[in-house]
Amino acid sequence: MVKSRSVERDDRRKIISYGKQSIDESDISAVEEVLRSDWLTQGPKVSEFEEALAKYCGAKYAVTFANGTAALHGAYYAAGLKKGDEFITTPNTFAATANAGVFLGATPIFVDVELETGNIDANLIKEKITNKTKIIVPVDYSGQPVDLDEIKKYGLIIIEDGCHALGATYKDRKVGSVADMTVFSFHPVKTITTGEGGAVMTNDEKYYEKLKTFRTHGIKKEGRWKGDMEDIGYNYRLTDMQCALGISQLKRVDQFVSKREKIAQRYDKELKNIVEFIKIKQDRESSRHLYPIRVPANKRKKIMESLLEKGIATQTHYKPVYWHSYYAKDYKKGLCPNAETFYEEEISLPIYPSLTEEEQTYIVKTLKNIIKND
């Protein structure tokens, strides 16, 4: 097993990070094999990884991209999102979920979240739908799938931002097989990693063809040598080196999710009645990308700083998208009160497959002491 380098402070004391990749010798060998081959990019490992992803998720097609943002951009394009359109999404997400639609000239319409899960409140979507609404983009916050069947009732194209949720299930169906398109990210803190990387899953051949063209400059191949650029596209391709790492990592995806779940269940038990944590609905299984807790907003900063002083790095997920300066000129605070409250109270505790029992014991003990003495 190859150990990831620990983040270190100026005093050289190791810090427990909130998330990190799990790389072993099989991953390194897989990448080394590609480096010794004739193909570094646009070779056979790309389609091999795509086929493995599609099979794992129970989808017909998978198209890889350079990163999760590029995958979102490609999915929105394939859905036909354009200038003048609106798309519904959640403010409790990384900015890329909204940005990728803005790239195409569309306007994000934000819907508030459930405080218990951090996911978009499916019951509030209807009131935001207009004749300009083209797609709905729910986010599987922390790895827990959204209420997809409820959202489907609105009859619009659903692009599921599943960047947290590879390995999760919704009503016994893998995330990636339910929505019209589902987007994954393979950033190092995600379920599996390719360094940077992303993919779009779909059962629709029309979307599949558009996605492939979009990630390759908008050029559609005509035979082996010829091609025609039908529309503006981008160089959003994933390399064979990255795909080889993805293939290797995917073999352990269920193992990674199982380890995360074990860590999450221990947090649930140890922190019960100490902090608020999100609830997992009975008809789904989370990939446990994050372990979010909620504490009083006026105490959050002090708790996070105190944890860091003890060598425990935490994070916040997420500042409401419309609070970012770029969006703030068009959206007012108070638009989604639950999302704002959630952000002001949320702390993401360390969770990743290689987190040890000893490290988790230390995290729990330290957190309890900080809260008790506050």
- Helical residues, percent: 25-40%
Structural class: alpha/beta
Give the class-level CATH name of the largest domain. Alpha Beta
Residue share in β-strands: 15-25%
Could you spell the SSE succession in H and E letters? Answer: EEHHEHEHEEHEEEEEHEEHHEEEHHHEH
What's the main sheet like? 7 strands, mixed
Number of domains: 2
Low-pLDDT stretches: 1-12
Give the N-to-C terminal Cα separation. 40 Å
Please tally the helical runs, counting DSSP H or I stretches of 4 or more residues.
Answer: 12
CATH superfamily of the largest domain: Type I PLP-dependent aspartate aminotransferase-like (Major domain)
Q: In the CATH hierarchy, what is the architecture of the largest domain at level 2?
A: 3-Layer(aba) Sandwich
Shape: globular
Strand count? 17
Strand order of the largest sheet: 3-11-10-7-6-4-5
Over the alpha carbons, how many angstroms does the gyration radius reach?
21 Å
**CATH fold naming of the largest domain:** Aspartate Aminotransferase, domain 2
Q: Explain this structure to me?
A:
The chain is of the alpha/beta class and 374 residues long. It has 2 domains: 7-20 and 253-373, Aspartate Aminotransferase, domain 1 (Alpha-Beta Complex); 25-250, Aspartate Aminotransferase, domain 2, CATH 3.40.640.10. 35% of the residues lie in helices and 16% in strands. The protein has helices at 25-35, 44-57, 68-78, 96-102, 148-152, 205-214, 240-250, 253-271, 297-309, 325-328, 337-345, 357-373; strands at 7-8, 14-15, 61-65, 86-89, 107-110, 133-137, 157-161, 169-170, 173-174, 181-185, 198-202, 219-222, 226-229, 276-277, 284-285, 291-294, 346-349. The strands form 5 sheets. The chain has a 7-stranded mixed beta sheet. It has a 3-stranded antiparallel beta sheet with strand order 9-8-15, with no helix packed on it. It has a 3-stranded antiparallel beta sheet with strand order 14-16-17. β8 (169-170) and β9 form a beta hairpin. The longest helix is centred in the C-terminal third of the chain and has 19 residues, at 253-271. It is globular, with a radius of gyration of 21 Å. Residues 1-12 have low confidence and may be disordered.
